[in-house]
Amino acid sequence: MTDLKDDEPSILESCITAQPSTDFHSPVLSADDVGSDKQSTRGVTSFRCNISEFPNRNTATNDSQGPFNCVHQTKIPQEIMAVDSAILAINAGSSSVKFSLFSRDGKNLLVSADVKGLTSSLTTLNYTAFFTEDGSTIEEIEGQEVEVKDHEDAFKVFVGHLTSDDREDKKVLESGDKIEVTCHRIVHGGASPEPLVINDETYKRLDDLSDLAPLHNHPALLIVKACMKVLPKSKNVAYFDSSFHTTIPEHIFTYPVDPSLAKEKKIRKYGFHGLSYSFITKTVAKHLGKKVDDVNIVALHLGSGASACCIKGGKSLDTSMGLTPLEGLPGGTRSGTIDPSVPFHLLSNSSDMSSKAAKELHLSKAEQMLNKESGWKALCGTTDFGEVTKKAFADQPDEMCKIAFDLFVDRIIGYIGSYYVKLGGKVDALVFAGGIGEKGEKLRAAVGKYVECLGFQIDESKNGKAKGKETVEAISAEGGEGEGKKVLVVKTDEQGECARQLVENPPKFD
Ligand SMILES: Nc1ncnc2c1ncn2[C@@H]1O[C@H](COP(=O)(O)OP(=O)(O)O)[C@@H](O)[C@H]1O
Ligand SMILES: CC(=O)OP(=O)(O)O
Ligand SMILES: [Mg+2]
């Protein structure tokens, strides 16, 4: 484990908390606004987005062919430029950076983009800009190969494209100066459950947590730094993955280790993917016509990093990730939970500092190996679970890919079983989300076979059709024993969740 320094407790303690304020420029949407279908924005009426169905990414249909396609549609530059204040939300994942640009009131999604493949040799840009009036597409780029070496580069490519003067008629903003606030998904918030306005001090505190989220915090903070340079007019606010899990009870967040040391060093389960689980909880409650406080969900966020969450009465009761995002399910480059003795047997000098880790991180060789050189990368030589799946199901299956696929299913059903019991069998929905959960039809089907015994029944045809394009897709069979136990695919939206929280609970900037 990381050799936590003497001052570690303060690092994990609450950072400066953003206070709700009434003097913030934007009107805060009231509960009555929530759910309203028709919102007027600066004289432009939009039917697409409202705060309860916060605009999701990739909503435009893509009928383009080929990997480097741009589709240009009719646009009205004056009206597009009319959006003179915006929110940018940035989600630095382990294999991607996702971006959503919203109008300042959060009612219109202007741009949805991502740079994917940061853990592979091919990095690509997807970029869709929307016309606010009817949500039609102003500009669409799909799978354009970009030269990007890290998260910060990905941000620069995105902002470069967004603000480039070459495409005057496709710009949704006059300039980057129109971005009033940038929301950053920061994975580890330590003991800080509230969003934080980022300044020099809070930046440093969050960066001090980087060793506890080695694939996330530091890269995300480098984006914050780049943002401060490239978008100097924008304020920056951190939204934490860990915040959703502050409701986990003590006997679940406690590790059975020396309690005084654990207390001093704040060693406990924190849990991550919380922005996604918060979005999922609200979305599922709405879909089921229930109050958030009444829904029980077993949710699976399966992406480059994968986790499960047990949601009781709309709140996190347990989750599979822990002190760091390494615990629990395996991922693209992560081992997930293994016997803690394994690194000592695999490496002769496991607690020596890694020279391979980024120079800003203090990671042991064991942490480096388990975070960056394990998972699908170690077993199959690729970090892409889509490729693992393809090879596992090929006419001549790749043996290691088949093992990796089955291993993932095995670990996932372990959490489903555990969480089903924790919820006393009262589960409204089993939810699949994240890149693999949304697109991995075969993975869902394989998990589905095991969970039939709990009353969840997946309809094969619905499962085949669900591609993570809609906000919610029900894939459970209707009728039968599983009646009432839904299986849903939710296109999660961590950026939308950050922006929603910003609009609903504006921080005080001073
Ligand atoms: N069709 C597919 N089937 C299974 N997995 C897929 C498919 N398409 C993408 N994926 C997986 O989704 C992962 C990305 O998930 P995502 O949640 O976007 O990751 P992150 O946010 O961690 O960067 C990719 O690494 C890839 O393995
Ligand atoms: C917490 C985590 O693992 O996030 P991601 O899946 O985006 O890498
Ligand atoms: Mg992610």
UniProtKB/TrEMBL annotation:
Q: Which PROSITE patterns match?
A: ACETATE_KINASE_1 (PS01075), ACETATE_KINASE_2 (PS01076)
Which Gene Ontology BP annotations are present? acetate metabolic process; acetyl-CoA biosynthetic process
UniProt EC number = 2.7.2.1
The alphabetized UniProt keywords are:
ATP-binding, Kinase, Magnesium, Metal-binding, Nucleotide-binding, Transferase
Question: Which cofactors are reported in the record for this sequence?
Answer: Mg(2+)
Q: Where is this site: Transition state stabilizer?
A: H273, R334
Keyword Ribonucleoprotein annotated: no
Q: List positions binding Mg(2+).
A: N91, E494
What span is annotated as the signal peptide, if there is one?
A: none
Q: Which GO terms describe its molecular function?
A: acetate kinase activity; ATP binding; magnesium ion binding
Family from the record: Belongs to the acetokinase family.
Name of protein: Probable acetate kinase
| Native source organism of the sequence | Saitoella complicata (strain BCRC 22490 / CBS 7301 / JCM 7358 / NBRC 10748 / NRRL Y-17804)
